[in-house]
Amino acid sequence: MSWDWEFAFEVFPDIVGAIGVTIGATVVAYLISLVLGLVFTLLRRSSFKPLSLLMAGVIEFIRTTPPLVQLFFVYYAFPMSPFTTGAVVLGVHYATYVSEVYRSGIEAVPTSQWEASKALNFSKAQTWQKVILPQAIPPVIPMLGNYLIVLFKETPLLAGIFVTEMLQVARIIGADTYRFLEPIAIVGFLFLVLSYPSALFIRYLEKRSGKLHGSAEKGVKT
Amino acid sequence: MTEEVVDNEIKESENENENIVVSYKDVKKAFGDTVVLNDLSLNVAQGEKVALIGPSGSGKTTIIRMLMTLEQPTEGTIEVDGEMLWHKEVNGELLPADEKHMRKVRGKIGMVFQQYNLFPHMTIMRNCTTAPVNVLGISKDEAKTRAQEMLDKVGLGDKVDNYPSQLSGGQQQRVAIARSLVMQPKVMLFDEVTAALDPELVGEVLEVLKDIAAEGDTTMMLITHEMEFARDVADRVLFLDNGKIAEHGPPSEVIENPQTERLQAFLGRFNNS
């Protein structure tokens, strides 16, 4: 099969037209994962043991089954539009990864901060809100950003449930014209164009997160 | 008639204890099989300054950490202002207190830590105002006024917009003291607050503590290795050894005229250095 530039230019606008769906699904799924991931983390840390064990089980279950299988299952089990199904399933799936990121951030906050909060008589909720999360989250923003890129690159999975994102449009073009090479290559190119600047931006965030609150020095050494 | 008489008697006996603000009753603390405190009974009066001295591992930190609810006693009860801290009495039975009850009682206690434990993500001002606004429910303006007053008192009134990492250890510890004072606790606990400081910074923190002690009303329990300071500030000194109060009394007795060999040996280490 040889490369046909003319054909490539002809189908390029059609595929670019689907970029909105790809980005939309990414954004919705990512927001779900950020919020739900935090909920997972907090429930997992609940002092009520049955709840925390149940949550651990749910997280493990979601994480150890393939997202594509989850997509098919939910698509055929629940009457939701392909787009909604795709965004929710990817969002919930990534929430389990994001929850691990939050956990690492929370565990990096020293016990002494919890103790100081108790000495000032903050409630549990206030301690989380005012003391722990503001220290736990900024250092893990680069890691959260990485998951945004990974999630973005997973959106072609949604083609499996007929969401008209970029890959799906490319497949439709291929099915119509019997030429797959150019449309698929264009999809890959568009992902590259979008992912690479995002990766640069995250690297910039990584550099910045070391310089919070006055200086690079954080915490106290004994 | 007779009932009234009985009532009066009870009131009288209560009046006698009126100035007791902290009371440990037969408190025991064990971590697994290791007993760190045994049969501790201790009353601290309103406004009293109590210094706790003793070798590390003697249980002195555990005493104040239990009062701050950072460590749960294995046995016994602790009362603050006549109210049990860790327990609730329901139909004559002692039950573990819920978080709501503990928060109410805990509000009377404040603590300053060895490692300052300031909130690194907040400015000095916010370190001092977040708890008063959210916990005590006072207005932001009032909290700021109070915080400014306390920060002036510890000599750091010009550092309000700095972050903790921009201050020296001694300055951070003074902020921690101010932060605790803004909450106006009845009892202030100090856990070796100068132990993490460079020697030349110890003095400025001790000065602040002396000022607070001189003002009077706040009850203070201090763990310290600064014997001279303990002698100047404390009304009473407790020498802890192996989980027990081995000697206690005014500093003129305990520090200047130790009775037990253990205390003589312990104090000897400070005189030599």
UniProtKB/TrEMBL annotation, chain A:
<feature type="transmembrane region" description="Helical">
    <location>
        <begin position="184"/>
        <end position="205"/>
    </location>
</feature>
<dbReference type="InterPro" id="IPR043429">
    <property type="entry name" value="ArtM/GltK/GlnP/TcyL/YhdX-like"/>
</dbReference>
<comment type="similarity">
    <text>Belongs to the binding-protein-dependent transport system permease family.</text>
</comment>
<dbReference type="InterPro" id="IPR000515">
    <property type="entry name" value="MetI-like"/>
</dbReference>
<dbReference type="InterPro" id="IPR014341">
    <property type="entry name" value="Ectoine_EhuD"/>
</dbReference>
<dbReference type="InterPro" id="IPR010065">
    <property type="entry name" value="AA_ABC_transptr_permease_3TM"/>
</dbReference>
<keyword id="KW-0029">Amino-acid transport</keyword>
<dbReference type="GO" id="GO:0022857">
    <property type="term" value="F:transmembrane transporter activity"/>
</dbReference>
<feature type="domain" description="ABC transmembrane type-1">
    <location>
        <begin position="19"/>
        <end position="202"/>
    </location>
</feature>
<keyword id="KW-1133">Transmembrane helix</keyword>
<feature type="transmembrane region" description="Helical">
    <location>
        <begin position="15"/>
        <end position="41"/>
    </location>
</feature>
<dbReference type="GO" id="GO:0043190">
    <property type="term" value="C:ATP-binding cassette (ABC) transporter complex"/>
</dbReference>
<dbReference type="InterPro" id="IPR035906">
    <property type="entry name" value="MetI-like_sf"/>
</dbReference>
<dbReference type="Pfam" id="PF00528">
    <property type="entry name" value="BPD_transp_1"/>
</dbReference>
<keyword id="KW-0813">Transport</keyword>
<protein>
    <submittedName>
        <fullName>Polar amino acid transport system permease protein</fullName>
    </submittedName>
</protein>
<keyword id="KW-1003">Cell membrane</keyword>
<keyword id="KW-0812">Transmembrane</keyword>
<keyword id="KW-0472">Membrane</keyword>
<dbReference type="GO" id="GO:0006865">
    <property type="term" value="P:amino acid transport"/>
</dbReference>
UniProtKB/TrEMBL annotation, chain B:
<keyword id="KW-0029">Amino-acid transport</keyword>
<dbReference type="InterPro" id="IPR003439">
    <property type="entry name" value="ABC_transporter-like_ATP-bd"/>
</dbReference>
<dbReference type="GO" id="GO:0016887">
    <property type="term" value="F:ATP hydrolysis activity"/>
</dbReference>
<dbReference type="GO" id="GO:0005524">
    <property type="term" value="F:ATP binding"/>
</dbReference>
<keyword id="KW-0547">Nucleotide-binding</keyword>
<keyword id="KW-0067">ATP-binding</keyword>
<dbReference type="InterPro" id="IPR027417">
    <property type="entry name" value="P-loop_NTPase"/>
</dbReference>
<dbReference type="InterPro" id="IPR050086">
    <property type="entry name" value="MetN_ABC_transporter-like"/>
</dbReference>
<dbReference type="GO" id="GO:0005886">
    <property type="term" value="C:plasma membrane"/>
</dbReference>
<dbReference type="InterPro" id="IPR014343">
    <property type="entry name" value="Ectoine_EhuA"/>
</dbReference>
<protein>
    <submittedName>
        <fullName>Polar amino acid transport system ATP-binding protein</fullName>
    </submittedName>
</protein>
<keyword id="KW-0813">Transport</keyword>
<dbReference type="GO" id="GO:0015424">
    <property type="term" value="F:ABC-type amino acid transporter activity"/>
</dbReference>
<keyword id="KW-1003">Cell membrane</keyword>
<feature type="domain" description="ABC transporter">
    <location>
        <begin position="22"/>
        <end position="267"/>
    </location>
</feature>
<keyword id="KW-0472">Membrane</keyword>
<dbReference type="InterPro" id="IPR030679">
    <property type="entry name" value="ABC_ATPase_HisP-typ"/>
</dbReference>
<dbReference type="InterPro" id="IPR017871">
    <property type="entry name" value="ABC_transporter-like_CS"/>
</dbReference>
<dbReference type="InterPro" id="IPR003593">
    <property type="entry name" value="AAA+_ATPase"/>
</dbReference>
<comment type="similarity">
    <text>Belongs to the ABC transporter superfamily.</text>
</comment>
<dbReference type="Pfam" id="PF00005">
    <property type="entry name" value="ABC_tran"/>
</dbReference>
